Amino acid sequence: MAKTFKILIADDESKNMAAMTDFLKSESDFEILEATDGQSAWALMEKQLPDLVITDFYMPQMDGVGLITKIRENEETQNIPVIFWSGVDNEELSFLLEALGNVEQLDKVVSKDQVIGTIRKLLH
C-alpha cells in the first residue's frame, strides 16, 4: 500500500486555498490539511504532524516567515520541507528563506505540474 503524505496548506485567501487544494486533490496519496493563518497552522501541526507545509507570506495572526521560523526552531518539525507560496518576490525575502533552510519558493502564478513536481521532489 502506498504511503499517504499529509500536506498542510496555510493561506488566508480562500481562492488561493481552493486552487492549491484542487491541485493536490488530483493526487491520491496526498491528505490535505488546511489553515487560514500561521497560528492555526502551527496548532494543527502540533496535533497532526504533516510531511510537508505550503504557506503564504501575508496572513493574520502569524505570517509565513513566522510559521517557518517556528517550524525550524522546533526539534520535532525542523526537518519538514516547506514551500513558500507567495506573490512576494524580493532579494531580502529570498535571503531570509535561504537562511531558514529547506524552503522552496513558488510564485502564486504557477502550474499544477510545477506544484506537484516540487512537492514530489521534496517528499522523496
Protein architecture, described:
This protein is an alpha/beta fold. The chain has one domain (5-123): Rossmann fold (3-Layer(aba) Sandwich), CATH 3.40.50. Helix content is 44%, strand content 21%. It is built from 5 helices and 5 strands; from the N terminus they run βαβαβαβαβα. It has helices spanning 14-25, 38-47, 64-73, 91-100, 112-123, and strands at residues 5-10, 30-35, 52-55, 82-86, 103-107. It has a 5-stranded parallel β-sheet, sandwiched between helices. Strand 1 (5-10), helix 1 (14-25) and strand 2 (30-35) form a beta-alpha-beta unit. The two termini are 16 Å apart. The mean pLDDT is 87.
Overall form: globular
Quaternary status: single chain
Uncertain stretches of 5 or more adjacent residues: none
The number of helical elements comes to 5
What is the CA-based Rg, rounded?
A: 13 Å
Lateral strand order in the biggest sheet = 2-1-3-4-5
- Share in helix: 40-55%
Domain unit count:
1
The total strand number stands at 5
Based on the structure given, which CATH architecture is correct? Answer: 3-Layer(aba) Sandwich
Fraction in beta strands = 15-25%
Integer average pLDDT: 87
